[in-house]
From TrEMBL:
Originating species: Olea europaea subsp. europaea
Residues covered by region (Disordered): 1-27
Any single Pfam family the record assigns to this protein: O-FucT
Name of the protein in its database record: O-fucosyltransferase family protein
UniProt keyword terms in alphabetical order: Carbohydrate metabolism, Fucose metabolism, Glycosyltransferase, Transferase
Length: 382
């Protein structure tokens, strides 16, 4: 076959695999040419309620995939109670390990985003420093009815509450509540958190490196949430949320190849450090990288050393949220939260591996996108 004919055949094959998704003429594979960024559907009423003397305290924990929901709960509770919100700290994976909010997130952005919604105390006020706050457990996406019936009576007696959000499932299904009642949840979950400048610059630099490694693909790359510590989890064998199972490195490579991604496509993996079992994926896609390979040398000690391991999850979360295509190797809260961020930015190409014979990429589109089953769809209008 002549080279020109071969190129035309490849283009025709990939075009058919995307069911009408228009491809850039310089790229191969099911990449969308443009992402339409949706607009927020919510409207926040002006701040009229008189503030009480009480405070809502809380911590962020269990990684960035939980933080937006924890923020949203705290904001909703504080708003309905008329309480002030104390800037949270961030708990690490080890007992007693914690960071200031500003070490990870932009404090000015956070406070400004909530202007007119709740008042935020950047430091714990002196008048409550010696007072132990009453602990209250609240469900993810707490409702106004729950706040009125369960939390408000406690707040009436104990003006300082410490919230702890609990999560019942991996999914983030679309809420049945109206857009208006979801307004504070939407604003807090998708409009308040931004990485602090140093960490944001690092993520941007790493994304730039991935795009340069994928120049033949128009600078586009695929991010895959694949970590070997997750593959042995119980949910990999039987997941109560969906029929999805876990896929290893070789299966991910075969999947990406099957749905039409060119071998020159850059692939980013959330795995920390290279592992021999990743070689089978790199055999199919040579431009496969873990974060260790693309972190600038001068940032390695700060963000990848023994003192910086907690930063890695934020790097992964943001790269997966911003990649051109995202592929989860297993069902998880990480996948669900990344999907929410991608819906908010219009990056809706999320392909979930499945035991199908189809070579059409859109046949593997995430249910969060295909069925609009994600909570984020109630927050944004295309």
């Amino acid at each position: 076959m002549e080279p020109v004919q071969q190129s035309q055949t490849i283009n025709q094959h990939n075009a058919s695999n995307t069911q009408g998704v228009k491809l850039n003429e310089n790229s191969y594979g099911p990449f969308k040419e443009h992402n339409e960024v949706p607009k927020p559907c919510w409207k926040i009423p002006s701040f009229k309620e008189k503030q009480s003397s009480g405070y809502i305290l809380f911590s962020l924990y269990n990684g960035p995939e939980h933080h937006a929901s924890q923020i949203a709960n705290a904001v909703v509770v504080a708003r309905h109670l008329g309480a002030k919100l104390v800037l949270p700290d961030i708990r690490g994976t080890k007992l007693g390990e914690k960071r200031d909010f500003g070490e990870i997130y932009d404090v000015k952005k956070f406070v400004a985003s909530l202007d007119g919604v709740v008042q935020v105390a950047k430091v714990k006020p002196a008048e409550i420093s010696s007072v132990k706050a009453t602990a209250v457990r609240v469900p993810d996406r707490v409702s106004k009815d729950f706040i009125t019936a369960t939390i408000k009576p406690i707040f009436s007696t104990n003006k300082n509450l410490r919230l702890a959000t609990y999560f019942d499932a991996l999914s983030m299904e679309n809420s049945k509540e109206t857009v208006d009642s979801n307004a504070y949840q939407c604003l807090a979950a998708f409009g308040s958190l931004k990485l602090q400048s140093d960490l944001l610059e690092l993520v941007d630099s790493m994304i730039g490196t991935l795009r340069s490694m994928s120049q033949k693909m128009g600078g586009r790359f695929v991010a895959v949430d694949l970590r070997f510590d997750m593959l042995g989890k119980k949910r990999c064998h039987k997941n109560v949320v969906s029929s999805e199972r876990c896929y290893n490195a070789e299966e991910i490579g075969e999947f990406l190849n099957k749905i039409g991604f060119h071998k020159e496509t850059a692939v980013y993996l959330t795995q920390t450090g290279w592992h021999g079992r990743l070689d089978l994926l790199r055999d199919i896609f040579p431009n496969t990288f873990t974060k260790d390979a693309i972190v600038p040398a001068y940032e390695r000690a700060k963000f990848m050393g023994s003192e910086g391991r907690e930063y890695e999850q934020f790097i992964d979360f943001n790269i997966c949220s911003q990649s051109d295509v995202f592929v989860p190797a297993y069902p998880s809260r990480f996948y669900a939260s990344v999907a929410g961020n991608r819906i908010a930015s219009g990056k809706t190409q999320i392909f979930v591996p499945a035991e199908k014979t189809s070579e059409i990429a859109n046949h593997y589109l995430s249910p969060y996108i295909a069925r609009k089953s994600h909570f984020a769809h109630s927050c944004f209008c295309v």
